[in-house]
Structure formats: structure tokens, C-alpha cells
Write a structure and sequence with these properties.
Radius of gyration: 22 Å
Distance between the termini: 60 Å
CATH class of the largest domain: Mainly Beta
Structural class: alpha+beta
CATH topology of the largest domain: Jelly Rolls
Helix content: 25-40%
Number of helices: 4
CATH superfamily of the largest domain: Galactose-binding domain-like
Length: 274
């Protein structure tokens, strides 16, 4: 890797809104995470000493409620713009690249060199204009320049953890599919396993009727199965893309509330049978 002021140690990290990837020479290098210091512009009006349109450097991934480099903090509700200048390696030029975004709360629009390439939900500047949606997405663009400016407009009026919460990656479009397929496979495998276990134990209870512990375990498995479909790859939203985010948010909290009692009841029944 080449030496540069925004390359920390042996790893590639953004520094003061820039990251240098020109040292990448391996065509099979794959996706690269854009972690580090992104430029952040808070656009909400003055509140609690925050200046309007202030520009800071903030850690990504992480909530904007965390302290910035200048020890500035921001309220959880509002909107802002993340910016990062990426110096591309020679082997990526004139190719179709992919930007992979994970959890960003709670709606965003992404631009590459001032051109909109996609959005998730409908970002806005007030609670009435925003449509929240949090799910992993990939966006493609053609790398026709030596560097690209990534700009992400994020707005949040629902989540208690706003901002870019998971790493953002960039790389050749063919590498993006592979990097996304592996965690998706494990999520589907976990979902299927929990679903089968849940149905099996419920039918075991209905057939034997000797103990209620299989029923509790089966219900607990189904609850965790449902929760698995709402996190990481969010496979529920892949199959039902029109489901409102407010429903997803409520179901996510409901699984936590319902899962614990089922597990407690199963544990008690299991100990009584020992």
C-alpha cells in the first residue's frame, strides 16, 4: 500500500473526509470498507448550541449522537449529509463499481459525484416528509474518474440510533454479489433451521401432550426465527419489500418482549422434568 496522510497504519481508513485506495493492485481484492472519519454537515437549525450547517468529521460506522472529532454532539432527530472523497485504484477505473450500504437510520439518498444513484426510504427535512426504511442495499455506478465523491443525505425522526450504523463498502460489482451472498446464506439457513425446530416441537406437543415444554420451546424458536428475518440481511423485507418500516420496528421490539417469557417458561418446565 502507498503511504498517505489519510491511511492509518497498515489498514485503509478514512481521515478527514478522504480515503486513498490507490495502493490496491490485486484484481481479486474484493470489497473495501470505507470506515473512518467522514465529513458531516448538520443541517438542522440551531438547537442546544449547535450551529446551522456546521461541518465536522465524524466516525463511520456510528451514530451521529456520538461525539465528533471536535467533541460536538448532535440530537437524534434531524438530518445531515455525510461526504467522503475516495481515490480509486488504477485497476478499478473504467469499471462498474458497487457501493454496499448496511443499516442507515432511518432514510437516505446517495450521490456519486453529484449524481443520485439511489435511496432507501424517503429522506426529508421534517417528520411529515420522511418515509423510514432500514435495509442493506447495493448501488452501481461507472468509475470514469480517478476519484469519486460519495455524498449521503440521511434523515431520521424515528430511530434512537441515527446515522450510518454499519460499514459502507466499495468495490467491483462482481465482488459485491459474493460478499452479500455469504451472510445472506447464513441468515436464510438460521431462519430455516429455527422455523423447522419451531414447527417440529409444536407438533410434538400436539401429538404427545405429555409436557408443555416442547410447546414453549417451539414458540420461542418461532419468535427468534421471526427476529432473525428482521436483522442482518433483513430477509423478511427482501420477500415483502412493501412492508412499512413502522411495522418492522414494532415487530422487532415485540419479538424481544415475547421471546423472553417463552424461554423462561421452557426453562422452568425443563427443570421440573429433570
Amino acid at each position: 500500500m502507498i503511504s498517505s496522510p489519510w491511511q492509518a497504519g497498515d489498514g485503509l481508513r478514512a481521515y478527514q473526509g478522504k480515503i486513498d485506495l490507490r495502493g490496491i493492485q490485486d484484481p481479486d481484492f474484493g470489497m473495501t470498507k470505507l470506515n473512518g472519519e467522514w465529513e458531516f454537515s448538520w443541517l438542522q437549525g440551531p438547537e442546544k448550541g449547535i450551529e446551522n450547517h456546521s461541518v465536522e468529521f465524524i466516525g463511520v460506522p456510528g451514530s451521529w449522537t456520538n461525539e465528533s472529532k471536535s467533541n460536538q454532539t448532535y440530537p437524534k432527530f434531524g438530518y445531515g449529509i455525510y461526504r467522503l472523497k475516495v481515490f480509486l485504484p488504477e485497476i478499478w477505473k473504467k469499471k462498474i463499481l458497487s457501493v454496499s450500504l448496511g443499516a442507515i437510520a432511518s432514510a437516505y439518498r446517495i450521490k456519486i459525484n453529484e449524481q443520485i444513484i439511489g435511496e432507501c426510504g424517503t429522506p426529508g427535512i421534517d417528520p411529515d416528509s420522511i418515509v423510514s426504511r432500514i435495509e442493506p442495499r447495493d448501488f452501481l455506478f461507472f468509475a470514469d474518474e480517478d476519484e469519486v465523491q460519495i455524498e449521503i443525505f440521511v434523515s431520521n425522526y424515528t430511530s434512537t440510533m441515527p446515522g450510518i450504523l454499519l460499514p459502507i463498502s466499495i468495490g467491483p460489482s462482481d465482488s459485491a454479489g459474493v460478499s452479500k451472498a455469504i451472510p445472506l446464506f447464513f441468515d436464510i439457513f438460521s431462519f430455516s433451521s429455527l422455523l423447522i425446530m419451531g414447527i417440529y416441537h409444536i407438533f410434538q406437543y400436539l401429538y404427545l401432550r405429555s409436557s408443555v415444554s416442547p410447546l414453549y420451546f417451539g414458540m420461542y424458536s418461532l419468535v427468534i426465527c421471526l427476529r432473525t428475518s428482521l436483522i442482518n440481511s433483513k430477509i423478511l423485507m427482501l420477500f415483502f419489500p412493501q412492508i412499512p418500516w413502522s411495522w418492522v420496528h414494532k415487530i422487532n421490539h415485540l419479538t424481544l418482549s415475547v421471546g423472553v417469557p417463552f424461554f423462561f417458561c421452557f426453562s422452568v418446565q425443563y427443570l421440573l422434568l429433570m
